[in-house]
Amino acid sequence: MSSHHHLLQLTLKKVVALFQPGMDESALMAWLRAQADGKTAGALLETIASHEGPYPPTLVRALQCLACTARPIQTEFNGTHYEWAGTALQRLFKSSEPISEFWPFFSGSQKPAVIAGTALEGLGYLTLEHLVSTMPEVLGPAGADPEHHQQKYFFVKFLDPSDFPPFAYVGFNPDTVGRLGMDSAQFAAHLCDQFGQDRASLEALAELVRPRVTSPEAFAELKRAYKQWAIAQAQTDWAGETSMHLDGFVASRAETARAETLLRQQQTIRRHLVSLLHRIDYADDQAILIETPTLHAIAGLSLQVHPRIKGNFYPKDELWIYKRLTLPDGGTGWILVEPQRTFDKTESGGDFFTPFAWREGRLGFRKAITPASLKEFVSLIDLTPRPRDHYLRTAAPARLPGETREGQAAWYRTVDEPAWPYFRVQELRFAGPGRTTIPLEHHTFIELHATEGQVRVELQRGETRDTCVVRPGHPALLPASLPYDMISYRADGPAQLQVFSRPKVSDTFPRTKSV
């Protein structure tokens, strides 16, 4: 037995002997920190795994938390399904069901990610929510967000609306809004009226077809037919000639005519509404920055706003990055990579693509929209028209401080602005084999998400090292508390890695457009 291993056994015996089962969690963590650091805690866990117990589960959980401060963190799959889900994430994760979103490092209580390899009998997995509330230093010196349940300040998710056209509606267009000749109050009333008319015609259509949509199978057919019609219309800015297939949903010629009239009403209203917004097609090297409370919609999702309301100290500002995705079956797809500030408040005014849902055995709606809610919804929107470029960011080649580079590795900056202190977005691209090394930051946690290839991440301080591998669907979170000075990224072939962190600025800066 090596002297190091023997020392760990002695340390473990000491820890177990001194452990007091009656300690509350905060007292236990304070006591444990005095006995060991994160790396020692990780080594003790390995010793526990290789020796017979029993070991107190609460002690093992505390060791797990402490160990997470000193190593890269990877989590189990944390996916969500909504009606608009495409097929790219389903193929990536080889799932039997569509996956709309993947939230690998979310720390909120409604859907916390669980840390891989931490399941304990009687306690389950260690969640990221539990970790950041117990060990806030993993997020940096400022810790977690004190105004929102001690969550992370931002998280990153993958969205898969790939069944729909690759574009978004974002913000108001100065040209088309200006032609209305309305002041702010008149414009707000006009929007409320248009959204209300759209919803009324949609509800009338639901009433018309409800007598024949009496089973989940019939609902699935209606959803599919309406989705196909809406996609065809959206591709031509709601000016197309395509009709919805109504066979089986209505009982007579008169009902068919009525349904067609309702669909034309929706088409006319939506053609006008989207003309007031910027339509931004997704493109390589381009990202769309959505600041609260901008009206926005990814094609396939609802038109929505994240409100800036009393008590909302960290609104849901977000960025949409279009990325082609390499898939295990050899094919390709596309997704949106979305960093967003951790606040879950969304209001919707229109649901153009998949508005229907099967609720309690009958045809219903995905979003609850009423005249009263629409009035509130419009009051929350920033009605100021802005130029299209206000929302766009472009990935630009960059040299990072202290960087060394070899082979075909290249850094790009997407969002790194003093006036945008909520998250920073960088990208590392490998056209072929390459490596880059930079000093490791400790003021922020870092999320690493790959969309192509495989990247080996190497951490180093002197002779001490740690590694992890990042590939599509298998990201990593690097705690700010890692006991390393340098980080290297290496790929043996083409790869793309998105790197998300917090900038070193106060988050009280006013928002200004960067040049």
Q: Which structural class is indicated by helix and strand composition?
A: alpha+beta
Strand residue content: 25-35%
Cα(first) to Cα(last) distance is: 62 Å
Instruction: Summarize model confidence as the mean pLDDT.
Output: 89
Helix content: 25-40%
Cα gyration radius (Å)? 26 Å
Tertiary shape: globular
Q: Give the strand tally.
A: 23
Supply the number of helical segments.
11
The assembly state of the depicted protein chains is single chain
Largest sheet geometry: 9 strands, antiparallel
Taking pLDDT < 50 over at least 5 consecutive residues as the criterion, the unreliable ranges are 1-7, 507-515
Outline the secondary-structure elements.
Blueprint: H1 3-18, H2 25-35, H3 38-49, H4 57-68, E1 79-80, H5 88-92, E2 101-102, H6 128-134, E3 154-159, E4 167-172, H7 174-180, H8 184-209, H9 216-235, H10 253-275, E5 277-281, E6 286-290, E7 296-298, E8 303-305, E9 318-326, E10 332-341, E11 347-350, E12 356-359, E13 362-365, H11 371-380, E14 392-394, E15 396-398, E16 404-417, E17 420-439, E18 446-452, E19 455-461, E20 464-470, E21 476-478, E22 486-491, E23 495-501
Antiparallel strand pairs: 1-2, 2-3, 3-10, 4-5, 4-7, 6-9, 6-14, 8-11, 9-10, 12-13, 15-16, 16-17, 17-22, 17-23, 18-21, 18-23, 19-20, 19-22
